[in-house]
Amino acid sequence: LAKTTQPISMDSYEGQEVNITCSHNNIATNDYITWYQQFPSQGPRFIIQGYKTKVTNEVASLFIPADRKSSTLSLPRVSLSDTAVYYCLVGGEPGGFKTIFGAGTRLFVKA
Amino acid sequence: ETGVTQTPRHLVMGMTNKKSLKCEQHLGHNAMYWYKQSAKKPLELMFVYNFKEQTENNSVPSRFSPECPNSSHLFLHLHTLQPEDSALYLCASSQGTPRGSKNIQYFGAGTRLSVL
């Protein structure tokens, strides 16, 4: 399974765009990149998933360069309620169902 | 509401007790997972079931015993636990396959377990 590296924590202010970058140098050809959000005492919630280039949904954008060795989660105009831990996961064959959550990035949004 | 329901939400048990955690998913998924999350730590994968068959056991102590009677239900039977087993136990499900899977997991709200 490809290991991921993210910043431990980030601070931002309401209304700003936040970009969280994840490094995954050993990503395999079939691996997808998936981001989850977790609030305290709750289960993680799926945010976005991509394979290459750019993916956008109603919550976030995911930017993946051509070499796929990193990815950037972009949260537009964050609010206080976006304060959470954000996890980047890389997986697929041959890891199959085995999932490794790293420490994630603790985002703190201030007023 | 994620479609994955865990009960109970909170549980306090002594070290000699036997209890069970229950997870039910209404998403039609084939894979179900148990995770443990200790305070301020990342999630640790414990078990994975795919079509009722266990595919992963992440070196979990035998005092934790999973059961998957069908693809919609998953149990975690607990006995003679230790205080360090106190944690948030999370269940998840996914519609994934082992090969090249997109494998998006949907999590329940978790069971907060305290072992006294």
Characteristics of this structure?
A: 111 residues; mainly beta; globular; B: 116 residues; 11 strands; 56% strand
How does this structure look, described?
The complex is a heterodimer of chains A (111) and B (116). Chain A has 111 residues and is mostly beta strands. Chain A has no helices and 9 strands. A 5-stranded mixed β-sheet of chain A has the order 1-9-8-3-4, with no helix packed on it. Chain A has a 4-stranded antiparallel β-sheet with strand order 2-7-6-5, with no helix packed on it. Chain B is mainly beta and 116 residues long. Chain B contains no helices and 11 strands. In chain B, the strands form 2 sheets. In chain B, strands 2, 4, 5, 6, 9, 10 and 11 form a 7-stranded mixed β-sheet that branches. Chain B has a 4-stranded antiparallel β-sheet with strand order 1-3-8-7, with no helix packed on it. Chain B is globular and about 40 Å long. Classes of the chains: A mainly beta (111), B mainly beta (116). Chains A and B meet through strand 3 and strand 4 of A and strand 4, strand 5, strand 9 and strand 10 of B.
Show the helix and strand layout:
The complex is a heterodimer of chains A (111) and B (116).
Chain A: E1 9-13, E2 18-23, E3 32-38, E4 45-50, E5 53-56, E6 61-64, E7 70-75, E8 84-91, E9 105-110
Chain B: E1 4-7, E2 10-13, E3 18-25, E4 31-37, E5 44-50, E6 53-57, E7 64-70, E8 73-79, E9 87-94, E10 105-107, E11 111-115
Parallel strand pairs in B: 2-11
Antiparallel strand pairs in B: 1-3, 3-8, 4-5, 4-9, 5-6, 7-8, 9-10, 9-11
Major β-sheet profile of chain B: 7 strands, mixed
Multimer state: heterodimer
The helix content of chain A is under 10%
Overall mean pLDDT of chain B: 91
Query: What form of chain A results from the Cα inertia axes?
Result: globular
User: The biggest beta sheet of chain A, please?
Assistant: 5 strands, mixed
How confident overall, as mean pLDDT of chain A? 90
Record the strand order, biggest sheet of chain A. 1-9-8-3-4
Structural class of chain A: mainly beta
Q: How would you spell out the order of helices and strands of chain A?
A: EEEEEEEEE
Which runs of chain A of at least 5 residues are low in confidence (pLDDT < 50)?
none
Shape of chain B: globular
Cα-to-Cα separation, first versus last residue of chain A: 38 Å
Uncertain spans of chain B, ≥5 residues at pLDDT below 50?
none
The structural class of chain B is mainly beta
Number of strands of chain A: 9
Helical run tally of chain A: 0
Radius of gyration of chain A: 13 Å
Helical proportion of chain B? Answer: under 10%
The span between the termini of chain B is 31 Å
Order of helices and strands of chain B: EEEEEEEEEEE
